[in-house]
Amino acid sequence: MKILGGKLKGRNFYMPHGIRPTSDIIRKSVFDILGQELEGLSFLDLFGGSGAMGLEAMSRGAKNVVFVEKDIKCFKVIEENLTILEIPYYERKDRYFDTFKLDAFAAIKQFAKKEKQFDVIFVDPPYSRELAKKALKTLSAHDIVHPNSLVVFQHDKREGLPDQQGRFSLLKTRKYGASLVTIYRSS
Predict the structure, then answer these.
(1) Does domain 24-186 have CATH number 3.40.640.10?
(2) Inter-residue contact 87 to 116 (CB < 8 Å)
(3) What is the pLDDT of residues 33-67, one digit of tens each?
(4) Which helix (H) or strand (E) holds 133?
(5) What are phi and psi of 85, to 5 degrees?
(6) Which of 22, 24, 118, 173 has the fewest other C-beta atoms within 10 Å?
(7) Domain ranges of the chain
């Protein structure tokens, strides 16, 4: 797969075997919605898989990118992708990138306990397990977003998400084949 935009545009990265990747169309669409430049923003890639969304965010100038993935095979691929793209964990003093081999729900709770907050959260759990709803409820119960933050879910079209969950309000939903991209704004 390739980075689609920003300073790393066109660079290749690895995709773990056996996972459902975020397609180029969905990645492009999400970043069209978010804005092409993420300069100065913090980005959390939950259920990271290959890290494609976090890598795109880094390429587009995100100040802080955190990858969370519990599967050891995928976690190693994220770290390998950071290495082949020559992105050190501390690129510059004002930029920070990190990986956590954790369950996404445990990570949310850990970030809340440490009072860590993000501007954009991308959530792409495995399909057919109702994990998008669970992630939305967990995010709603733990304060890890700034006011006006965006939370973007890629989920199975059969898993409907509510218009409102705590301080998250539905901004838009787009359909891409068997997937939905649902975006919330925090108050």
Answers:
(1) no
(2) no
(3) 888 678 889 999 999 999 999 999 999 999 999 99
(4) helix 131-141
(5) -85, 0
(6) 24
(7) 24-186
